[in-house]
Amino acid sequence: MAFFTHQIRRGFSSSIIKNGVIKNVTIIGGGQMGAGIAQVAASTGHTVTLVDTSEDILKKSRKGIEGSLKRVVKKKFADKPEAGEEFIQNVLQNVSISTDAGASVQAADLLLEAIVENLKVKQDLFGHLDELAPANTIFASNTSSLPITDIAGSTSRLDRFGGLHFFNPVPMMKLVEVVGTSTTSQETFDSLLNFSKALGKTPVSCKDTPGFIVNRLLVPYMMEALRLHERGHGSKEDIDIAMKLGAGYPMGPFELCDYVGLDTVKFIIDGWSAKDPHNPLFASSELLNKLVAEGKYGKKTGEGFYKYK
Ligand SMILES: C[C@H](O)CC(=O)SCCNC(=O)CCNC(=O)[C@H](O)C(C)(C)COP(=O)(O)OP(=O)(O)OC[C@H]1O[C@@H](n2cnc3c(N)ncnc32)[C@H](O)[C@@H]1OP(=O)(O)O
Ligand SMILES: NC(=O)c1ccc[n+]([C@@H]2O[C@H](COP(=O)([O-])OP(=O)(O)OC[C@H]3O[C@@H](n4cnc5c(N)ncnc54)[C@H](O)[C@@H]3O)[C@@H](O)[C@H]2O)c1
Question: Where is each 3-hydroxyacyl-CoA dehydrogenase C-terminal domain found (predicted)?
């Protein structure tokens, strides 16, 4: 059975979002976040098109979704393996993949972006898709740190643009930060909030401030752990153990940096530092810069602060 089709559902000539209820979702970026969001949206009955730049990347996204679904099913259908397998097939049927963002947005009630954490790249993507997408398609970014207002500025749909910030790993993390700008309409904000609930997540409402709520607190903490290590005040292993056993965190800060992606952590902190260079919370880390320069981005590349199989 074909798990995924490469066909775009051309039967829809344009998005037909009804009463602000999001059903068809196009996700741009099939990395750890995009694939995770696609999985959860498809698992909750949404029709998903996942877009990335190459077939190879999308094949990897598909493998990741299948692997994650198997883990979910192992628990959810522990004593009903056949029902579990059926669930997986149904979810996979809800996901199409494509390398053609313009075509895949034609039927989208929601266009959700989860590509690299770079303002210019995000603006270019949204600016381009704004011209191709139906007028009523809602646009949202999963950015970790960039102002939604700045990203939305590349489009002409300022009232239909917001932030939807998910957490990694998406199938496990319950929170979604829903971000409204000064121009996001109440209707759009409500649609995004209700979509988060439909995914089984708990949404919180955030202002368009750097890092929203979680990252504004979490990223400075992670960076301070790196700097503490650089000052020679603790090994990365000891710092990780300390924060897990002494503060009850599921992962230590070095493990978490590797899990998030060191490239993403660097994009976040460099962006904030450029805007507020004297803020010591946003100071850089030589160790982080070195690892990123070496292409060691953490778990997703097989090595970061730690090595992964
Ligand atoms: C920077 C960004 O903008 C914002 C962010 O996202 S910041 C990062 C936020 N995320 C965090 O802080 C994550 C912190 N870590 C955790 O919560 C936990 O370590 C964790 C949920 C990732 C894993 O749980 P843990 O008990 O440590 O490890 P593990 O034994 O691998 O997983 C337990 C179960 O979780 C489930 N699970 C974990 N990852 C999963 C995934 N990707 N898909 C499906 N299920 C998963 C599985 O059921 C797994 O059981 P299994 O091993 O039998 O399959
Ligand atoms: N990693 C996290 O913990 C986390 C959590 C929440 C939010 N975010 C944010 O989500 C976004 C994605 O992060 P990620 O960790 O999934 O990154 P990732 O590196 O795993 O995936 C990014 C994907 O986007 C694709 N891509 C890049 N440019 C593209 C384009 N123009 N068109 C289509 N696809 C393109 C890449 O090929 C890649 O597959 C970033 O903005 C990041 O800040 C990350």
Answer: 211-308
